[in-house]
Amino acid sequence: MSSFEYPGEFYEVIRKDFRDLAAETEFLASYLPPGGRVLDIGSATGGNLRALAALGHPGTGLDQSASFTAYAAAAATEPGSAEVEYVHTRAEDHTTEHRYDLVYSLFSTLNQLTRAELRQLLESVHGWLAPGGHVVIDIGHLLNFVDGYQPHIIAHHQGDGLLVTRLARQSVHAHRAVWRNEETIIARGGDGTVSMYANFFDQTVFTAPEVRDLLLDAGFEVVAEYGGFRKEPGPRIGRGPLLFVARSATTGQEAAA
Which fold has domain 144-204? Predict the structure, then answer.
């Protein structure tokens, strides 16, 4: 369960304080052939797809936020870039006849799914991959949540003449293994106008072995695990991203043969 219906320009300001677009782009591009097609699950305001399109990779972005999807579509007009399409939908409801060289989901987006929903989505993704294609998952793991827990957060983000303040409360539903984030977002525009939005999202707390098993059950083999987009080793303890790179197990068997 989640709600991200606030202007995309505010998310862009917040995003820059958490993520390294250049590193993400280089990492994703390393798994693409020239002109390879990409699918971004949880594309938000579209920054990753725009960066890959500038390198010649056409793609599709899926996001459940109407506000973010509209912002992304309006921003995807750079001359000379490959074609990009943004679709307002929940990923688990999406169907397509396209085949992609890379399917990825970043920033713990897949933690917003239940275990059953993630299992179903991974099975769908397996069918969306082109021969030799890869899937990249950036997921929040158990120790990431434990080490990063703060009951209350006040954070300020600035950029492009905007000041965005997040007032957040985190809580845990132990019996469901769900992490709830409730936020009030207060934004002051360049003209001094102030607006406020309610934002919340639930995240399922996965363990790394659990994600490996879900990928295996969906027909994948894990070919690499990293602790960041510079391809550093996975975190041994505590906070830090955990990136899985996988491909169809059939592809791996064919390569071995």
Answer: N-terminal domain of TfIIb (2.20.25)
Q: Which candidate, 208, 218, 212, places its Cα nearest to that of 240?
A: 208
What homologous superfamily does CATH list for 2-142+205-256? Vaccinia Virus protein VP39 (3.40.50.150)
Element counts in the chain: helices (H) and strands (E) = 8, 12
Residue 109 DSSP class: G
Q: How far apart are CA 203 and CA 154, in angstroms?
A: 20
Could you tell me if 237 and 144 are in contact, meaning their C-beta atoms sit under 8 angstroms apart?
no
Residue with tokens 């083999």: 221
pLDDT 10s digits, 70-124: 999 999 867 767 899 999 999 999 999 999 999 999 999 999 999 999 999 999 9
CA dihedral 215, 219, 222, 228 (to 10 degrees): -50
Which structure tokens are listed for 7? 């202007």
**DSSP assignments along 115-132, one per residue:** HHHHHHHHHHHHHHEEEE
The DSSP 8-state label assigned to residue 89 in this structure reads S
